Fold this protein.
Amino acid sequence: MKTIMKARVCTRKEYVAIFLFLAVFAFIFLLRNTDNLKSQTKVKSTTIVPKVSTEPDMHHSFCTFQPRSPEDALEERRLLDSIAWPEAPPLSDPLSLNQTSDPAHSTFTILPGRTGGQWHVGDQLEIIIKMSDFQGRPKKSGGDFLLVQLHNQKLGAGVVGQVVDHLNGSYSAVFSLLWEGDAQVEVMLVHPREAIPVLNRLNSEQPDRIFFQSVFRLGYRSETATCNVWLRQTNRPLCNYTDLRTGEPWFCYKPKMLSCGARISHVMGGFEKKIKAYEEKLFESAVNMKVSLWASGPSNITVLPKKEGQSDVKSSIVTSGPSGYYYQGVWRALGGTTVHQFNDSSVISQCLKGKVVHMYGDSTIRQLFEYLNATLPDLKKFNLHSPKQVGPFMALDYANNILVTYRCHGPPIRFAEVQTSQLRYIANELDGVTGGTNTVIVLGIWSHFSTFPMEIYIRRLQTIRRAVVRLLDRSPGTLVIIRTANPKALGLYETLTNSDWYSLQRDKVLRAMFKGLNVHLLDAWEMVLAHHLPHSLHPQPPIIKNMIDVLLSNVCPQKRGQGFGFAGGEEWRFKNSLSL
């Protein structure tokens, strides 16, 4: 009996030993895995991930972003290749203007018409442009940024030409002849080829030359910190505000005392002009920037009526030709929806009756909101106590069930102070739209991306495009209209921050990005360039009125014989070149 009891005691001791062993093993296992989790967390904190961090991100490099998908990266490469500009040799220090393109010594020549030196409506006019330097010597290479226009101010007529660079100092330009009467050729040098590498270098080496700031506040304590898409390496930790859903990057230097979660506002901080003194010579108004060239011979022609038996004017326009032209001050599209004039507020109200119009973008989109708000007497703007420049804005015509809203796009945006609660990315806003046949979306985003490498703009458009596709998939009847970039008046500051060359490159990318989708382009580039009014970042009222006509004509397209109180316009319908 004693032997049996002793055995049982030993068995209990063994159980206790086994239990203690298992407990110690489990504790060690848990401790090891906890250390691994901590280690993984530390590794992740040095990588930019799509989340809003309330703690400082200790990653101090000049900002790497979350990985791109292979498809996005390939598209980016193709887009960059498609807009590649002819290379120019490095500049000497000090720079001598003698060897750079001089508009005063450069000329254009109108080539004879193909029918006995005459031109008829429906023909094409071709010119040759010869560039020379400041000593009158012919240039031997291409790469100058030229804009060409054909106009007749008395008729209120104008159309944009297409430029071909022969890469040997000469260029061709072709115009479609679309009205009867006089037509004056204008050729403008925006930038000599030697200026383009400077603009390119600024964006690659100094993307932070326009900087932004945020105010951080907790109670009565506040601090200000610099913010941007990129922040240069310092000893200061960073606050990571990369958007959770889109992955759009944004960073601020962490305040000394306050946490990253105390950020309350966003504002443009300023501009640092980091250009070499000798390079400024390339950007002189009335010398080599936005200066018209002389004609070696006549600068105008007389266009005769269309020849008998000639094919229709519109059908003869090649796909690479202009999207439209002005005649009697009215924009006439050469493809897509026929443009009508909406000259009466009651007609506009009838068109928009029962519609919801959401506008997203920069101040050039806000112009469209302001036009409608000022034109429609029953469209009442709500006082949301929003800053005049920033918004958001909302206007309602209760009787006609019309709602129009405007919201600025997310950073980078150079507006006055914006509350961080109102900083919204367009893609996220689109994901919140129900959509449908009574919903109109108007987008415009380009100007505020001019100081950054093109990759940043491509990335933003890719996120917006994905949101547009999602919207059109769930609500195919939704109308989406995208406003393009436009040329503007240029001084030195405007050139270094928003040159027409920057705008042209973004315009090309935007068109390529949305090609093939069921969206419509509001071609602000051609509508500003073809008009006789001076170029302006914010086009003047006559141009805005024509843009509204294009917008509303897409909202309320009319077929032949349908009455709607429209004035003017034409009933041509051709292959849609506005709808991409």
Remarks:
- Residues 142 and 167 are 4 Å apart (CA to CA).
- Residues 1-63, 563-580 have pLDDT under 50 and may be disordered.
